[in-house]
Protein: Peptidoglycan-recognition protein
Amino acid sequence: MAVKELALFLVLVIYVNGYPSRGVKNQCVSKTKTIPIVSRDEWGAQSPTSITNLTLPVPYVIIHHTYEPGACYSLLECSSAMRSIQNYHQGTQGWADIGYNFAVGGDGSIYEGRGWKAVGAHAAGYNSVSIGIVLIGDFVFQLPPAHQMELTKELIEVGVELGYISKEYSLIGHRQVRSTECPGDALFQEITTWDRFTPAVNTK
Structure:
């Protein structure tokens, strides 16, 4: 095929099918990890009303659970959960966007919330110094699936490698900085065994 014909063919493919990344999971790549990221466009996010940038790298990673909506195990279910969370945070709470930086679904994917660079609204007093990661589901009495927890750990590792999270970060549960059961008794007990879990948190 001639160069001009090839170029025209590619233009037609893009025009008809869209760019290859559309509708396909993106990837967040570090030197050692490649993790699946579902972008805001892919899960159907509304635009934020404002954005405040984090000062990077952040010293805290804060773990949450959604409680409601419950666990999800497919792109369709998890995307619906993300839209539900954002609608509540923006419409009811009056926040600028979904509160979390990232969400981890039971389907084996990570969902982009505010991302690495924007201040979240997930832990009052600590939003500007943390990345907030929520595991979608109710984990008061039972743990998330092993792959969901492992993906959460991998996300943190990538954040460290890419310079968004401090190498000396402290891992904490939401309940350590606010009166709440979040991230659920079962999940909280689990994260006490994770790398860099910090029992005592500096008062803000």
Notes: The two ends are 65 Å apart (CA to CA). Confidence is low (pLDDT under 50) at residues 1-24. The longest helix spans residues 75-92. The beta strands are 26-29, 34-38, 58-65, 102-104, 110-112, 130-135, 165-173.
